[in-house]
Design brief:
This protein has about 280 residues and is an alpha/beta fold. It has one domain: TIM Barrel (Alpha-Beta Barrel). The chain is built from 11 helices and 9 strands. β5, α8 and β6 form a beta-alpha-beta unit. α4 packs parallel to α10 and α9 packs parallel to α10. The radius of gyration is 29 Å and the shape is globular.
């Protein structure tokens, strides 16, 4: 009689009371093979964030870089894509047909030459399809060249001068927003128009966490009347780690696409190879 009463009492108890395990508890699960522990998969640690090339701690005065390590074989071909308010008015009036150089871009693509493009935000907006095409090529990299190519110091090759540090900051930040929307290989590299900068202009950009890139090989391609001087300037100075400055500005750099094949062939003949700016700088 007493045995039947005991069995009836056990039958009335919930499973949790019999096993010591609540099936509804968040950490409930089948026993492991060893030691009776839980067999739930271990939580993988979050991957370390990928550092964007050129990024430095925000609040840091931007470092200024001219070239990478003088070892190996790589050089960086960089192209400034400029557009100002005045240049845009020329396009709208029909005075100028384009500030994009299609033969230059097509050559880089055909020859699979790595390059970095310092775009103004206005140029990226004017030539949206071309900007996306550049961003979509894994051999290319995007960098910041202000929004409308205003100078941040006075007397800089006749460029319009922005004197307000807050406006400088807003201008460059706005351009990063335009470029980031394109995707592709993003950087936190920045180049001042005309390479004109002083301590005040550098301090203005400290909140953005950028690296300023000038360059050690100035091609002299703006408004050039012949291509050979451009070729000679680059081949005569470029070496391992060099950062070559050229332009993709149509009538403002009318000889660059003619000089580029000779530059590429000449550097290859010297055993040089081409890398994105981040690769050449060792970022």
């Amino acid at each position: 009689m007493r045995r039947r009463q005991t069995l009836a009492l056990l039958a009335a108890l919930p499973l949790a009371a019999l096993t010591g395990c609540d099936p509804a508890a968040p950490d409930a699960g089948p026993k492991g093979d060893a030691g009776g522990g839980s067999s739930r998969p271990a939580v993988s640690p979050s991957p370390a964030p990928v550092k964007v090339p050129g990024a430095v701690a925000k609040g840091t005065t931007p470092p200024v870089v001219n070239h990478g390590p003088r070892e190996g074989t790589m050089v960086a071909l960089t192209f400034d894509a400029d557009l100002t308010e005045f240049m845009k008015k020329q396009l709208e009036s029909g005075e100028v047909a384009t500030y994009h150089n299609e033969p230059l871009l097509a050559y880089l693509e055909k020859e699979k030459v790595a390059a970095t493009f310092f775009m103004t935000g206005m140029w990226a907006g004017q030539y949206g399809d071309v900007a996306k095409r550049i961003a979509g090529n894994p051999l290319f990299e995007l960098a910041n060249h202000t929004y409308s190519h205003q100078a941040f110091t006075d007397k800089c090759y006749g460029l319009a001068f922005e004197d307000d540090p807050a406006a400088m900051l807003a201008d460059v930040d706005r351009t990063f927003g335009v470029l980031e929307a394109l995707g592709g290989n993003q950087t936190r590299y920045f180049r001042y128009p005309g390479l004109c900068h002083d301590e005040r202009a550098l301090e203005a950009l400290a909140p953005l966490g950028v690296t300023v890139v000038d360059g050690d090989v100035v091609s002299g391609d703006p408004f050039a009347e012949a291509s050979q001087p451009i070729v000679d300037a680059v081949l005569g100075k470029a070496k391992a780690g060099s950062v070559v400055i050229m332009h993709i500005g149509g009538p403002n750099a009318p000889q660059t696409h003619k000089a580029l094949p000779k530059i590429v062939e000449g550097l290859r003949a010297k055993g040089m190879t081409f890398g994105r700016l981040s690769e050449v700088l060792g970022a």
